[in-house]
Design a protein that fits this description.
By secondary structure, this protein is of the alpha/beta class. 45% of the residues lie in helices and 18% in strands. The chain folds into three domains: 2-122, 3-Layer(aba) Sandwich (Cobalt-precorrin-4 Transmethylase, domain 1), CATH 3.40.1010; 125-235, 2-Layer Sandwich (Methyltransferase, Cobalt-precorrin-4 Transmethylase, Domain 2), CATH 3.30.950; 238-286. α7 (149-159) packs across α12.
Length: 287
């Protein structure tokens, strides 16, 4: 702790501070020091953060900063920062602004010419990736998919030919529907990883072929409980190149044809599935 205390923590600074995703012991020494030092904590849920601080023997002024009031709160935080205060920005769990509120606040604070300092720490996506065993030099963080089936399917089709490992967040009540949607779009031989309840008592990391995923989810009620990180193996490089060519052909045809006609012709030319091309054509038309 002496090393932490000797470091510099400037005033008029927003500290973007990662908090544990389930295990309170995962807090960093620097995060604890900053939480004790700051004048206030901007947080997604004051009750959750209040409980977190109590676990560490801390008590601070809490400012609710969630997705419905980010712009309004950003202005108030800027005034406080300009007055010389130090403020920590936290989410309910993990790193703020990563599939959580915070990005608009950070953007506004930076636009005001004030300093933003990240304090790295827990991230569910990176924790799951590190334990997945999926060998790939790239990953693509998707976060939460759209709730409505049509928008979700369009989003998945746009990712079909990507070579990078795909990372999704998902809630327990949607996990079965999302696995079915993945199986309808991607090849069954791809590896999928379910990282469930990470760092908590009932943590589970399971890897299988996508074709076996629905059966695994259904075989035990516990497989549908908890917060999920899903990791899906990326497409082989040849598929990515093939997909890029199909996209090029589809865009050319859309300039002269209806969506249905373009999808039908592109399917004949490239050998790709008509339904997948049709969904992709809808996305292109909406751009």
């Amino acid at each position: 702790m002496d090393e932490v205390a000797r470091q510099v923590y400037p005033a008029s600074t927003l500290y973007v501070l990662a908090t544990p995703i389930g295990n309170f012991a995962d807090i960093t020494l620097r995060a604890l020091h900053v939480l004790a030092l700051v004048d206030a904590v901007a947080c997604e849920d004051t009750r959750n953060t209040g409980h977190l601080l109590m676990r560490y023997g801390l008590s601070k002024k809490l400012i609710a900063a969630h997705q419905h009031n980010e712009r309004e709160i950003a202005e108030k935080l800027i005034v406080r920062l300009q007055a010389g205060e130090r403020i920590a920005l936290v989410s309910d769990a993990g790193t703020p602004a990563i599939s959580d509120p915070g990005a608009r606040i950070v953007d506004a604070v930076r636009a005001a010419g004030l300093r933003v300092m990240p304090l790295p720490g827990p991230s569910a996506a990176i924790a799951a990736l590190s334990a997945s065993g999926l060998v790939c030099d790239q990953f693509h963080f998707v976060g939460f998919l759209p709730a409505k089936a049509r928008q979700r399917d369009a989003a998945l089709h746009s990712l079909r030919d990507m070579a990078a490992t795909l990372i999704f967040y998902e809630a327990p009540h949607r996990i079965s529907a999302v696995v079915d949607a993945l199986a309808a779009v991607f090849e069954g031989q791809r590896q999928i990883v379910f990282a469930r309840e990470l760092t908590k008592l009932f943590e589970e990391v399971h890897r299988c072929h996508l074709s076996d995923a629905a059966a695994w989810v259904a075989q035990d009620a516990h497989h549908q409980k908890g917060e999920f990180v899903l990791l899906l193996e990326g497409a082989p490089p040849a598929a990515e190149e093939d997909g890029a060519e199909a996209e090029r052909v589809l865009r050319i045809l859309l300039a002269e044809c209806t969506v249905k006609q373009a999808a039908t012709l592109a399917a004949h030319i490239t050998g790709h599935k008509k339904n997948a091309l049709y969904e992709r054509a809808l996305v292109i038309k909406a751009e």
